[in-house]
Design a protein that fits this description.
- The chain is mainly α.
- It is built from seven helices and no strands.
- α6 (141-147) crosses α7 (149-177).
């Protein structure tokens, strides 16, 4: 094996070291939870409105006198961020065996937060929003979903995607836990 191939192999194995990483794991889960809070505040505090208005855009209403201070649409968008953060926290806490170094935790969380923020801003921007129009102030989340088929489809796809991803990770964990599968990638035969 050449020195370059050896370095490449060593690098890839270093990424997959199986050992506990309390600091990295705690940092990752904490930053992912903070991301959900940020997405909520982008909508609740009007920060999304300020950012979009600075670009000469118009926004859909996201704040209301409801239990979370958001419209049903804003609550749905905020809930998507909570769901994604929760799924990643479950994965890191209960499923992943790989070491999560603090630098990796920060990088992955920053990447997720960047894209979640872009999605939150796009969901609040009237030009790209799937928000239902003409709902009464007393409307529920179900009313919002039923009034906007694109929103309903997006929420359904999100739910199926998150459930599929989590289910696949649980299946992989169970496969790897069997002694006869140690060191093997998952095969086509489902063993």
């Amino acid at each position: 094996m050449t020195e370059k191939a050896s370095e490449s192999k060593d690098w890839s194995l270093a990424l997959r070291e199986k050992r506990p990483s309390p600091l990295g794991s705690t940092l990752f889960v904490g930053l992912r939870a903070a991301d959900a809070v940020l997405q909520y505040h982008l909508l609740r505090q009007g920060w999304a409105h300020v950012a979009i208005s600075a670009l000469n855009g118009s926004t859909v209403p996201t704040t209301a006198a409801g239990p979370f201070g958001l419209t049903p649409y804003g609550t749905i968008i905020s809930s998507l961020a909570v769901g994604a953060s929760l799924k990643q926290g479950i994965w890191q806490t209960f499923i992943s065996e790989q070491e999560m170094k603090p630098a990796a935790a920060v990088a992955i969380a920053a990447f997720n937060t960047l894209f979640n923020t872009a999605n939150t801003l796009l969901s609040a921007w009237a030009w790209s929003s799937a928000a239902p129009t003409h709902l009464p102030p007393s409307a529920s989340m179900a009313d919002a979903l039923l009034a906007a088929p694109a929103l309903m489809a997006g929420v359904a796809l999100f739910g199926v995607g998150i459930a599929t991803e989590l289910g696949a990770e649980i299946q992989r964990m169970r496969f790897k836990a069997r002694p006869q599968n140690r060191g093997k990638p998952m095969g086509r035969n489902g063993s």
